[in-house]
Amino acid sequence: MLQSSLEGGSMTEQPSAPDESGTDTSGVLRDDFGSSAFAAPEGAAEDESGDAADGGQLLPLPPDPALEPRPPSGVGLCLSGGGYRAMLFHLGSLLRLNEAGWLPKLTHVASVSGGSITAGVLGQRWNDLDFVGGVATNLRDVVIDPILEFAGRTVDVPAVLLGVWTGNVAGRVAGAYDRHLFGGATLQDLPSDGPRFTILATDLSNGVSTQFSRASISNYKSTDAYKGYTVKKPTTRLADAVAASSAFPPFFTPFKLDLPSGRRVLLTDGGVYDNLGLEPVLKNVGTIFVSDGGGPFGITAKPPTDWLFGTVRVLLTIQSKVGDLRRLQVVKALVKKQRAGSFWAVDTDPAGLTRLASTLPVSRADATALALSPTRLAHFAPELRHRLANWGYAVADACLRAYVDPNLPEPAGFPLPDGVGDVR
């Protein structure tokens, strides 16, 4: 079996070692454009192609004319999909961004799928945060701990077993979100004075994103066959928006959204169109942070061939390629300095992090194990919850100190128990 890798802008083939099941695990962690790339600090050297010389092996990346000029202000945060794995990884990102004073500077937060669970809780409880000196002193109590507790619940299997006969699996997922996290909150409970929170789903009729926010539910694409739509000041439940965003096919799709006009639209997972949540943010801010908790694509010599799991494999293949294109999109903006900020991912190779804190030890084996955590809405053991959040914290810290604020002090240690695995 051969594993493709990016070297100097060209595709090369390297032998890889499958495990006994036939699944390749040697290429799980990435240090090319797909793992971690950043806006280089002012004064950083560039090679002849204009790419940052210390940015790893990158494709030749022309500037994106759609992003010129850089907006003068605005700070965006994008939280990717990836089930509970992403939901928990993003907690670490929030913790480190908060300590670094970036949380109250946010003007836009966009999310898809598992990232929308984290973003939804943050948005609903934004006004409960106590900011002192630019740091939310109660972030753990208000946002982090409730999500850690929620990760101990299994949502997906009961929703499928109970909802498959009525065609309302996604509705049961929404019910679980509402009972355990949102308590009847609607989109109007997102902050009016604070970041604009946008939760993304994908419309099955026209194939583009439907955006849920406090201001509106909107879908911009209209044709003769299908008209886009805008609902101003929607009172849709926050749990419904998050469930639509995380309606991963084929099990949780479609999410049936009834508009006030009486029209019903069918939605699927936001990651089908944009697994990083870039669309509402990248063109509207000068600084962008992207936390990617999407798992690596599993290379296998024996892909499933049955109808159900074969279909899932096809969907995962498509989503993987969509994710790579979105990663490249944000990397272009960062490397070409069209945007400031940083990008980090759960499948980052810690060996490639030049500013990985000595107080936050992470081995490649532990990072690999965390990246391979299942993409499920199912019970995660407490240790795994803590380790995913700690890994998100460590990689966010390394990226912030390397490419955003070189003077940011190393943290004293991991914010949660259990480190990231066997390394202490």
TrEMBL record:
The active site is at 113 (nucleophile), 269 (proton acceptor). A motif (DGA/G) lies at residues 269-271. Residues 78-282 form the PNPLA domain. One of its GO terms (molecular function) is phospholipase A2 activity. One of its GO terms (cellular component) is cytosol. Residues 60-72 have a biased composition (Pro residues). Residues 1-15 have a biased composition (Polar residues). This is Patatin-like phospholipase family protein. Residues 1-74 are annotated as: Disordered. It comes from the Bacteria. It comes from Propioniciclava tarda.
